[in-house]
Amino acid sequence: MSKRLELIFENEMGGNITLTLDNPVHPANPAAVSAAMDAIVMQNAFISTGGEIVGKKSARFVDRTVEEIEI
Fold this sequence. Notes:
This protein is α+β, with helices and mostly antiparallel strands. It has one domain (2-64). Helix content is 18%, strand content 46%. The protein contains one helix and four strands, in the order E-E-H-E-E. Strands 2-1-4-3 form a four-stranded antiparallel β-sheet, covered by helices on one side. The mean pLDDT is 94. It comes from Halalkalibacter krulwichiae. This is DUF2922 domain-containing protein. Pfam families: DUF2922. InterPro entries: DUF2922.
């Protein structure tokens, strides 16, 4: 099983931009995640095909389980 943190932002065109971080600290500190997302928005750290990131939408943990099948 692998866990990742997804930070979801909105760009100028109204689309969603998702930044994914592998192996995050769990549980996360919501204030720290929010502050990091604010810094990304304020610093114009990333630009998407829909323009600059203009706001934060949400953050979430995603678990992925892979089960091999013997063939």
